User: What shape does this take?
Amino acid sequence: MAQGNVETYFEGTEWHCRVQGDRQPFHTSDTKERAIEAGRDEARARKVEHIIKDRDGTIESKHSYGNDPRNVPG
Assistant: This one.
């Protein structure tokens, strides 16, 4: 099992979620919302970052679940 962050991305005609470093997605959906939910759940379980990409592959947002440094203000 790969140890990377989780990414949600669009490919072909569907939204997918995969762990960075894996070739195959662990989730496929016809809606972005369902894919984001699945990616968020996996990122929380792994305590890694969830990277959400637009249809064109640009990063829309990033959310960190448990990997933040403790001494950073804000």
Observations:
- The mean pLDDT is 92.
- Strands lie at 6-11, 14-19, 27-29, 49-53, 59-64.
- The CA atoms of residues 15 and 29 lie 5 Å apart.
